[in-house]
């Protein structure tokens, strides 16, 4: 209808290029997982493809997946939450401590703790207008420190039967340990995935996440209460971390002061590997599943291939950079500092 | 109603400053149903501030605003309330969310819901089609694609359609045709007549004086943050208007 206009302006070639890069972004996750599986099949063959190994992967992925969902919620708005690892560890400990105090129902303390951390994150970020990176970096440190203070460096174990000795802090919750095993943990993750998909794709909240990532200024021009919504975004992400803490506790069987360390990086990597641009505005639940799976498979495959764990971390760091490089929407970035 | 002579909107000596800079010293005007008023003035004269007060984006530091004779309470002076009263704006940069589709942009801030939380996409698409058809915009291909995939003219149609669909009382257009070619400009002007004819008042901000003379019933000049009394288009020459804009001279 009309040519390029100031403020709207994308010319045809730029649009075509954007279309191509979007195609690439959308398909890279699937290509990546296929390549990774092929690679490790060639390197390790049967040991990698065994039912036992894939059962292990199916147990390993869900915690990361739920953390990635928390990250996806935040990243879609163009923000980031690097406190999810600390928050996970803290919530696991609060869940097990809650069960010591209140019995099985006390496990909700974990979800409450994570949701509260999300609320604090969101409030600092939205009301004080401190960038989400700085806010959640501070919370990463603070929450971990609080966990050390509360736990006094000790762990609380989840056991099959009530412990008889008194020198070990523990709580009997066989149902929680059962939740942490295959196939229950996978079923739990699939149910959360279905709910997450509905939440992300079909609700007003989910749509608003993408719109906020698109243009915060326009939303406020049209009377959307952006300040309150941004707090809610972090609360929703916190709640998801809380769900992750439950299955993580079931799987590891202990609330420890170091649980969840560096998980924030894996969560970000999973989202980026899922082709979601960290610049916000777009995202996909299903591709985030693929991203989380890719990351788990890489770690697993490298271990089976006998690669030293430190080198395995190097490989995953490189993977993170590659994933972000592909998923960034550079049209939206003026200056990188 | 009758006591204020049927004025739809009364703006009385509103002012606004930002951190010591007085963007608008005193703005006053009235607007009746089915009227097109043009607001003209040099860059930085305070036009934008004035319409953003009317739109509820800014709350005035002093003065007051009445809609249908009812004063707007300071605590209600926000975008949500003004939209509720039927006041809508087409911003110069269109104010669209580029990564969202046309229906979302049309329903921005008023998304229809099912069961309280789900987006009623079906209803949105249906109403979007009806609105665009109403505007005789037939070139829009897909309502599912992000709006950034549409042409500039189509994006403009959506932005105007949004204002017309919800602006029962007043539609404010901020430089609506500055970036358009002659055909689209004619189209936008046709739409302005159409909404005026249904009884909606139109506030037009334009630097194009020819357009102002062609469309406006009355003209309001803003000079250095002050409004001069609005005058009918017929009683003024373009030379007088230019002097009013540049020098702040009163038009008799």
Keywords:
heterodimer; A: 337 residues; mainly alpha; ABC transporter involved in vitamin B12 uptake, BtuC; 3 strands; disordered N terminus; B: 252 residues; 2 domains; 33% helix; globular
Describe the overall structure.
The complex is a heterodimer of chains A (337) and B (252). Helices cover 72% and strands 3% of the residues of chain A. Chain A is mostly helical. Chain A has a single domain, classed as ABC transporter involved in vitamin B12 uptake, BtuC. A three-stranded mixed beta sheet of chain A has the order 2-1-3. In chain A, helix 1 runs parallel beside helix 13 and helix 3 crosses helix 9. The N terminus of chain A is likely disordered. Chain B is an alpha/beta fold and 252 residues long. Chain B folds into two domains: 166 residues, P-loop containing nucleotide triphosphate hydrolases (Rossmann fold); 67 residues, no CATH class. Chain B is built from eight helices and 13 strands. In chain B, the strands form three sheets. In chain B, strands 3, 6, 9, 10, 11, 12 and 13 form a seven-stranded mixed beta sheet that branches. A four-stranded antiparallel beta sheet of chain B has the order 2-1-4-5, with helices on one face. In chain B, strands 7-8 form a two-stranded antiparallel sheet. The mean pLDDT of chain B is 88. At the A-B interface, helix 9 and helix 10 of A face helix 2, strand 8 and helix 5 of B.
């Amino acid at each position: 209808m009309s040519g390029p206009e100031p403020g709207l302006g994308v010319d045809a070639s730029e649009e075509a290029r954007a279309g191509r890069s979007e195609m690439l972004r959308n398909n890279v996750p699937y290509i990546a997982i296929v390549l990774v599986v092929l690679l490790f099949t060639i390197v390790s063959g049967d040991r990698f493809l065994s039912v036992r190994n894939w059962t292990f992967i199916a147990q390993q992925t869900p915690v990361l997946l739920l953390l990635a969902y928390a990250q996806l919620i935040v990243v879609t708005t163009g923000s980031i939450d690097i406190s999810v690892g600390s928050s996970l560890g803290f919530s696991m400990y609060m869940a097990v401590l809650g069960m010591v105090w209140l019995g099985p129902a006390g496990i909700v303390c974990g979800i409450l703790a994570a949701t509260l951390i999300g609320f604090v994150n969101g409030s600092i970020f939205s009301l004080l207008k401190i960038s989400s990176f700085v806010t959640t970096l501070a919370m990463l440190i603070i929450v971990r420190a609080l966990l050390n203070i509360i736990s006094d460096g000790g762990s609380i174990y989840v056991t099959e039967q009530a412990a008889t000795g008194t020198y070990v802090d523990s709580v009997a919750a066989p149902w929680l340990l059962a939740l942490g095993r295959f196939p229950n943990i996978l079923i739990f993750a699939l149910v959360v995935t279905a709910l997450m998909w509905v939440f992300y794709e079909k609700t007003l909240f989910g749509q608003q996440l993408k719109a906020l990532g698109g243009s915060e200024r326009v939303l406020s021009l049209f009377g959307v209460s952006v300040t309150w919504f941004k707090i809610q975004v972090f609360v929703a992400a916190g709640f998801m971390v809380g769900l992750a803490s439950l299955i993580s506790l079931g799987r590891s069987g202990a609330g420890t002061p170091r649980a969840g360390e560096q998980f924030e990086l894996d969560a970000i990597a999973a989202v980026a590997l899922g082709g979601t641009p960290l610049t916000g505005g777009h995202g996909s639940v299903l591709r985030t599943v693929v991203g989380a799976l890719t990351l788990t498979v890489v770690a697993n495959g490298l271990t089976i291939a006998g690669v030293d764990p430190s080198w395995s971390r190097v490989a995953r760091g490189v993977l993170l950079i590659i994933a972000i490089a592909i998923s960034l929407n550079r049209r939206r970035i003026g200056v990188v500092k | 109603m009758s006591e204020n002579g049927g004025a739809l909107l009364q703006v009385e000596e509103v002012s606004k400053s930002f951190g010591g800079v007085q963007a608008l010293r005193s703005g006053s005007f009235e607007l009746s149903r089915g009227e097109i008023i043009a607001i003209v003035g040099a860059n930085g004269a305070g036009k934008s501030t004035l319409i953003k007060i009317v739109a509820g984006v800014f709350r005035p530091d002093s003065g007051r605003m009445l809609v249908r004779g009812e004063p707007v309470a300071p605590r209600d002076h926000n975008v949500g309330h003004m939209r509720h009263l039927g006041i809508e704006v087409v911003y110069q940069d269109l104010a669209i969310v580029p990564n969202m589709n046309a229906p979302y942009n049309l329903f921005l801030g008023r998304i229809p819901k099912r069961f309280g939380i789900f987006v009623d996409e079906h209803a949105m698409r249906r109403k979007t089609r009806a609105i665009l058809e109403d505007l005789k915009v037939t070139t829009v291909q897909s309502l599912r694609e992000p709006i950034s995939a549409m042409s500039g003219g189509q994006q403009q149609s959506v932005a105007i359609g949004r204002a017309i669909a919800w602006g029962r009382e007043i539609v404010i257009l901020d430089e609506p045709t500055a970036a358009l070619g002659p055909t689209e400009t004619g189209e936008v002007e046709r739409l302005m007549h159409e909404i005026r004819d249904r009884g909606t008042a139109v506030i037009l901000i334009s630097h194009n004086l020819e357009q102002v003379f062609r469309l406006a019933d009355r003209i309001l000049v803003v000079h250095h943050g002050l409004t001069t009394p609005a005058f009918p288009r017929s009683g003024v020459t373009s030379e007088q208007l230019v002097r009013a804009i540049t020098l702040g001279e009163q038009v008799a």
